[in-house]
Amino acid sequence: MSTRTSALDAVVFGVDIQSGDVRGDAPSYALAIYDGEDVSRDVVSHRKLRRLIDDEEPTIVATDNMYELAADKDELIHFLGSLPSDTMLVQVTGAEQPEPLSRVAKRHNVPYGKDPMQEAEAAARLAAHNVGHEVSAFTDTTEVKVARGRSTGSGGWSEDRYTRRIHGSVRKRAREVESELEDANLEYEREVREAYGGFANAVFTVEARPSDIPVSRNRSGDVRVEIERERRDGIEFEPLVKRRDHVVVGIDPGTTTAVAIVDLEGDVLDVWSSRTSDTADVIEWIVERGRPIIVAADVTPIPETVEKFRRSFDAAGWTPESDLPVDEKQHRTREHPYDDDHQRDAMAAALYAIDAHEDQFERIADKLPPGVDRGEVTARVVAGEESVEAVLTDLDDGEETEEESTEHEPRELTAEEKRIKDLERQVERLQSHVDRLEGRVAERDDRIDELETELGVARREERKEVRRDREVSRLERKANRLERERDEAREEVEALEGKVERMKALWKLDHSNFSDVSAEKEGLVPVKVVEKFTKGAIREADDQYGIASGDVVYIRDASGAGRSTAELLAEFDPRVVLKDGGLSEIADEILFEAEIPVGPADDVAMQEVDELAVAREDDVEAAIDDWHDRAEERKRDRKASMVDQLISEHRAGDNEV
C-alpha cells in the first residue's frame, strides 16, 4: 500500500541529452511525453524543447540530471524562472547526491535501457509515479513593481508638468494594483517612493505565485508593471512524496486496538489507539508512518489479529518467550508518554522487539558500504531471511567487473617501481586525509545551510510581525476616524434635536392660550424674537426657528443698526417689527421705504417662553394701524417740506433775476 499521490493524470516530459553538450552550441534531446497511458517520442533541439514546454505546459519536466538542461547554476535558475507557472522540474535520481538512474528504475520496477530515449522514458515514468525531487529556485513570494515607463527629463516648466503627469499615472496604476490585490484577498506589503506629483514607484511584495496574482506584466505609456518571483538563497530540493522509513510496529489487539511505531534506533515515532477503527484503518495509519520490518506483540503465542497484520506487510513477527509482566512493560516505557494501557502494551512490544534484534541490526550496519540504504537491507535480512552479502549483490546496478584470472610468475620490482608503490600509498593516505577534510567541510556547509534556513524563517517571521503591526496601525487609524465621524454626527444630531425642540415649543405657543384671554385659539400670533438689531442676531434667529415673510419680529435692542442690517431685515419682509430702544435714522428710513411697519413693543402684550413669544392679534393690528397713521402723516410732512423747498428755490431764482 502506498501513500503516494498519483500523477498519472498529468502530462510528463522525460528529457535526456541525445547528442552534444548544453555548454556547446547545439545540443539535442531525447524527449518522451508520457500521459499515463501512451508515450510519444521525439528528438528535439534545446530551443524546440523550450517552445514545447511553453506550448504544452506539462505538469513535470523530468530528468536524471538537471545540469543537462543548463550549463551552470545561473542558467538553471533562468531556466526555472522561464517555466510555466504550473510546471515543475523534477530530478528523479535524488537531490544533491543523485543515484544512478538504472538503480532507481530497478527499485521501482520501471523499464530501463542505456539508450537516451529509453532513459528519457524511464525518467518520465518515474516522475509520473511521484519518484524524485522537485528542483526549486524560487519561493511562493512575488514582487510586483509599478514604475515609470519613460524618463522624466530635466528642467523647464513644460518638463515639470510632464514629470508631474508621469508620477500621477504611476500613483493611479499603483492604487489600481492594490485594489486588485485586495479583491483577490492576497496578503501583501507595499513600499512607495513618493515623488513630485505622485509616486516614482510602488513595490508590492505578495505572498502568492505569479499565476495566482490578478495582475499581469505590461508596459503602457507612462507606466510599466514588472512581476518577479522572489529567489531562494540557492537551489532547493523538495521530495514529491515524503519518504517512509523502515520501522518496527507493536500492536495490542482487542476491543481497543493500539499501535506503536518505533524506528530502527529505538526512538518512538508515534502511538495511537482506537475503539472504532477497522483493520483497513489500522493498516492505513501504519503505512502513512513507515514500512514495517517487524510486527510485535506483548504476549505469546502471537495473537491471530497481529498475525494478520504481519502477513499483510510481509514482515517478520516477534513475541516474548512468555507474556510480558505489567511492571516490566511500565519500566520499559517509562520515558515515553502514552494515553492508556493499550498504548503502553503496544509500545512495550515494539521496544522489546528492538532490544531482541539490536545485535543483528548492528551487525548488518557494520557490513554496509557507504551510500547503501540501511533500512532496505535490514528489511530483507530480517523479514526475507536473506544474507547481507546476497542483498548487496542484488542491489548492485548490474554492472559486473571481470577479474583477471591469468596467472603469472611473480617478479622482483625495480627501484623505480618500488618508489611508485610508495608514492601511491602516500597518495592514498593523503587522499584519505582529504576525504576527512571534505567531510568536515560538508558538515560545516550543512550547518551553514541550517543557519541560513533558520535565518530565512526568522526573516519571514519578522516580515509577518511587520505586516501585523501595519495592520494594527491601519485599523487604529480607521477606528479613530470612525470615532471622530461618530462624535461629529452626534453633535449634529444634538443640534438638530435642539432646533426641533424649539420648533415644538413655538408650535405649542402658537396653539396655546394666555391665562387672561379666552380659551379659543383665535386671536394669537407667534412672535420671532431677535436679541439685537445686528446681522448676526438676525441670522441666528433665522437658523433657530426661521423668519419668513409675514412674520411678526420682536427686536429686544433696536439701537445701533446700520444700513446693511436694516436691508437684511427688509429682505425677510416681516409683517411688523416690534422694538425696544431707539432706532437709528438710517434704519428707520430703510424700513419705512420698504413699507415695513415699525412699532414700540410696549404697545403689544406679549408672553415669552425662552426665545419664543406670542402676542394678541388685535394688539399687532393696532400697532400696524398706528404705523400706517404715522406713515401717512410722515408722507404729508415730507410733501409739505418738498413744496416749501420748491417755493424757496423759486423765490431765490426771482431775486437773482
Mean of residue pLDDT values:
83
The computed structural class is: alpha/beta
> Rough shape?
elongated
Indicate the radius of gyration in whole angstroms. Answer: 50 Å
Count of helices? 16
| Share of residues in strands | 15-25%
How far apart are the termini? 142 Å
The largest sheet, given as strand count, sense and whether it forms a barrel, is: 10 strands, mixed
User: Helical content, roughly?
Assistant: 40-55%
Q: What's the assembly state of these chains?
A: single chain
In terms of per-residue confidence, which ranges show pLDDT below 50 for 5 or more consecutive residues?
A: 1-8, 397-411, 513-521
Using DSSP, what is the number of strands? 21
Describe the structure.
The model is unreliable at 1-8, 397-411 and 513-521 (pLDDT under 50). The chain is built from 16 helices and 21 strands. It starts with 11 loop residues before the first strand and ends with a helix. 46% of the residues lie in helices and 22% in strands. The chain is elongated and about 170 Å long. The strands form three sheets. Strands 1, 2, 3, 4, 5, 6, 7, 8, 9 and 10 form a ten-stranded mixed β-sheet that branches. A six-stranded mixed β-sheet has the order 19-18-17-16-21-20, with helices on both faces.
A few lines on this structure:
With 657 residues, the chain is α/β, with parallel strands linked by helices. The protein is built from 16 helices and 21 strands.
Q: What brief labels describe this structure?
A:
alpha/beta, 22% strand, 6-stranded mixed beta sheet, 657 residues, 16 helices
